[in-house]
Write a structure and sequence with these properties.
The complex is a heterodimer of chains A (about 400) and B (about 260). With about 400 residues, chain A is mainly alpha-helical. Chain A contains 13 helices and no strands. The chains are: A mainly alpha (about 400), B mainly alpha (about 260). Chains A and B meet through helix 9 of A and strand 4, strand 5, helix 10, helix 12 and helix 13 of B. Chain A: InterPro entries: MFAP1, MFAP1_C.
């Protein structure tokens, strides 16, 4: 724990300014603190080069291999037990125990002291062997000794790598098998299995040949029909050209009546029925349209009724006579019903009614309704039934 | 032009300088939406990179279905991806004819792929008809992937669709003059059906013998066991009966074609 500072701040105490008239207070604490901190930093820095400096080749290599391991065999790495971990790890103290006290021991000790620090760093990383200095004499001895700790560690490295590779191999094989078995992956939409439709040929050559003949015949017939149609049209045109005007009119009349009959066959628009017209664009003849599509587009709309719709809106009260029943009861729907109701004109009532004389005159200056000279007044406030006028009114 | 593995230059519409089809970048024969789906699909990215005409053959023989896009996300079929690749490569006529002919004999999906390519790229109408009509004799079964499921068709049905419909396999086919138009102009001969003589024999069955038979001579020989009653040559004079027959047959044919 750093020495508690009485100032409660981490700022370094600045040298106090000279203020004339004030006695300079030399704080023993502050001085000590500053000196302490400086000292700490230096020792903190100083050992650093001894400890790690640049990582040795071996350290690097091991790190890389470990990284690879982790990626490929992530679930399997924790299989190693602690004993295994520690097996390849040789502490500097152990290694130094092997040493015989020699003239080289002095150097070794120095090296040891280095390695002690480095080994304390290395303990979490496995397998880490602290590089140990061996003099030439010792090296010769080592070579004859056989596999050293380092080599053992390297072997275990290899074993671990092989294990990881095997796991990876097994995983890949499993995936391939799953794929082969037809398991679905996220991007594979299996609407229906492919085997639904069998496209093997020559299951029944006779039937297939017969089917093909049928198709071919239909194609041929289709072509012939098309030619015939064209011929018919040409003939029709010729025929009409050769007829007189009267005959043409006769034919047209018959055709129009036939159309009317057809239209009557269709449903009639009910009172205030909702009308939906798809538009001229969709009415266009499209030879390629599916029959179903064409049937759908050419539906009889006037004859269509909703299930819930009142059969005849004329029997409903006026409030419910709306074209779109979903708007019933809603605020803001327009009260517009149809043109006829909203029209303020009189629909041909006025033809030949007014006296010609007063035609151009404004409404206000026209005489009252003519032809009712002494007739009873049917409009206005006086239209209540009134009894006979009493002739004599003496009072 | 040198074979470029990633062929990015084709997809970039700005500076395209390769062969033109219908006066435009061949890739534009597919609509933008479909193009995007193809290029984003895994099949394209994995399998269609750096293909040339020979390696495309390897992919094509592995095909098991035809179709356009399917599913909610409009996934393209491998067939469509390979067709797109063919458009990118624009191989020569001989190669395409080889695909259609010899190689197609063995691998029907390759033949269909080449037929699709022919319909989409050949500029002269007559060439399209003359190249594709021989395929109408091929009756092998074909598995087709529809938008939601599978369907069974045949090679000749697919070729027929190519010649008549305007949209096949998620592409709008370039406009093709109808055969009658070409025949009138004299650019084409009337079609020789693969049935040939058998057609004559069938016509002989026609009960309404009166009226000229338009096309074939009458031969009285046995029938082939087909279910066809009445022939297409029923004329106005034959009245309502032939019309009815034709209507019945239309319905029957519609029902059976719905499966296709």
């Amino acid at each position: 724990m750093p020495p508690p500072s009485s100032r409660m701040t981490k700022n370094r105490p600045q040298p106090t300014r000279y203020r004339p008239g004030k006695a300079e207070v030399a704080d023993a604490d502050s001085e000590e603190e500053s000196s302490d901190e400086e000292e700490e930093q230096k020792p903190a820095k100083a050992p650093a080069p001894k400890a790690s400096s640049f990582p040795t080749q071996k350290k690097l290599a091991v790190d890389l291999s470990k990284a690879g391991q982790q990626r490929s065999a992530a679930p399997t790495v924790p299989v190693k037990t602690e004993d295994e971990d520690l097996a390849g790890f040789v502490t500097a103290s152990e290694s130094s125990e092997e040493e015989d006290g020699d003239g080289s021991s002095g150097e070794d000790e120095d090296a040891d002291s280095e390695e002690e620090e480095s080994s304390s760093d290395d303990e979490p990383k496995k397998p880490m062997l602290a590089p140990k200095f061996i003099s030439k004499a010792k090296r010769a001895q080592q070579a004859s000794n056989g596999p050293t700790a380092e080599e053992r560690a390297a072997e275990e490295e290899r074993l671990r790598k092989e294990k990881a590779d095997d796991m990876l191999q097994a995983q890949l094989e499993r995936e391939a098998a799953a794929r082969a078995a037809g398991k679905k992956f996220w991007d594979d939409e299996d609407i229906a299995p492919e085997d639904e439709v069998d496209d093997t040929d020559d299951l029944d050559p006779e039937a297939e040949r017969a089917a093909w003949k049928l198709r071919e015949l239909k194609r041929v017939r289709r072509d012939l029909l098309a030619i015939e149609e064209k011929e018919k049209e040409r003939e029709e045109i010729e025929r009409r050209r050769n007829m007189t005007a009267d005959e043409r009119e006769e034919e047209d009349r018959i055709y129009i009546e036939a159309q009317k009959d057809d239209r009557e066959g269709k449903g009639k628009m009910a009172y205030m029925q909702k009308y939906f017209h798809k538009g001229a664009f969709f009415n266009a003849e499209d030879g390629d349209q599916d029959e179903e599509v064409q049937a759908a587009l050419n539906r009889d709309l006037a004859g269509a009724r909703f299930e819930d719709e009142a059969g005849d809106k004329a029997i409903l009260p006026e409030y419910m006579r709306i074209r779109d029943m979903t708007q019933l009861g809603r605020k803001g729907r327009t009260k517009y019903k149809d043109l006829k109701n909203e029209d303020t004109g009189r629909w041909g009532d006025e033809m030949g009614r007014r006296k010609r004389e007063f035609d151009g005159v404004d409404e206000r200056f026209r005489p009252d309704e003519g032809g009712r000279g002494g007739g009873s007044e049917r409009t206005g406030a006086n239209s209540a039934p009134v009894g006979e006028r009493k002739r004599a009114r003496h009072e | 032009m040198a074979h470029q593995a990633d062929a990015r230059r084709h997809l970039d519409e700005r500076g395209y300088s390769g062969p033109l089809i219908h006066n435009d970048n061949p890739l534009k024969l597919f609509e933008k939406a479909v193009r995007d789906r193809i290029v984003d699909s895994y099949y394209w990215k994995e399998q269609c990179f750096g293909l040339n005409a020979a390696t495309l053959l390897d992919r094509a023989v592995e095909l098991t279905c035809i179709g356009g896009t399917f599913g909610v996300g409009q996934k393209p079929t491998p067939f469509l991806c390979l067709a797109f690749k063919l458009l990118q490569l624009t191989p020569e006529r001989e190669i395409i004819e080889f695909y259609l002919g010899k190689a197609g004999d063995e691998f029907k999906y390759l033949r269909l792929l080449a037929a699709f390519y022919v319909r989409v790229t050949y500029e002269k109408d007559e060439d399209v008809y003359t190249t594709l009509e021989p395929l109408l004799a091929d009756s092998r079964k074909v598995r087709r992937r529809t938008r939601e499921g599978w369907a069974l068709t045949h090679v000749d049905e697919f070729v027929d669709d190519l010649l008549l419909k305007s949209r096949v396999c998620a592409t709008t086919l370039p406009k093709l003059n109808p055969r009658t138009f070409l025949e009138d102009e004299g650019r084409l001969e009337p079609r020789e059906s693969a049935l040939g003589e058998e057609l004559d024999e069938l016509d002989a069955e026609d009960g309404e013998g009166e009226g000229e038979k338009k096309v074939k001579d009458e031969e009285s020989s046995g029938d082939e066991g087909e279910a066809e009653d009445g022939s297409a040559d029923g004329r106005n004079g034959d009245g309502a009966r032939s019309e009815e027959d034709i209507k019945e047959e239309d319905e029957a044919s519609d029902e059976s074609m719905d499966g296709g």
